[in-house]
Known about the structure:
This protein is of the alpha/beta class. The chain is 23% helix and 23% strand. It has 5 helices and 11 strands; from the N terminus they run E-E-H-E-H-E-E-E-E-H-E-H-E-E-E-H. The chain has helices spanning 32-37, 64-76, 119-131, 143-147, 190-202; strands at residues 2-3, 17-18, 39-43, 81-85, 91-94, 98-103, 106-110, 136-139, 151-156, 160-167, 170-171. The longest helix is centred in the N-terminal third of the chain and has 13 residues, at 64-76. The chain is globular. The chain starts with a strand and ends in a 14-residue tail after the last helix.
Amino acid sequence: MFLGAEGLGLRAKGLSTHVMIAAWDLGPYLSPEAKRCGLRALTSSWARHHVNISLCRAKTSGHYVNSMLALNTAVKAGFDETIMLDPEGYVAEASAANVFLLRDGVLHTPEVTSCLQGITRDSVIQLARDALGIEVRERRITRDELYTADEAFLTGTAAEILPLRELDGRKIGFRAGAPAVDAPIPDDSVTARLQQTYQHAVRGELPAFKHWLMPA
């Protein structure tokens, strides 16, 4: 949704509202290997928005300049993704995805203060709790907790569920001690189980979650 061009300035007075819907075959968010083997990420020096700077829960195009700066810095340094911190130094989200970590059988994800309350994030929380019986806690998370997590992954509409295997050159959890050549994440990991459960759910194969879908 966007405002028309009837005027120029910050007051946005008397401007008409327009709606445009773009649809295309997106394909894999990154490479197919990213889903199996995971991503290498760099913590960004660009912080996410403060709650009193903008509407952090709004999915507005202007916010994505912040994400583009962070992601391009990481990509130019040879990484796949970036992890952005909030203005107080806690983990917020990736450039366009939410963050989860697993520790001692419990899933943790940042509270939605400086990050989007993603649809896929919410779906994964419900699947973890209701389909897999895994406890999920929404709270502040520090960067070092990602370094020492048992597992970590990102969620998003395009990304779906992508493992995070390395952050700032430190291998995470199930990647610790792995050889330099990429290897798939273990099939019995929570990340892999959630990937499989999510695919079943979005294809209408789980009766408890069919209400998520609209029949064609």
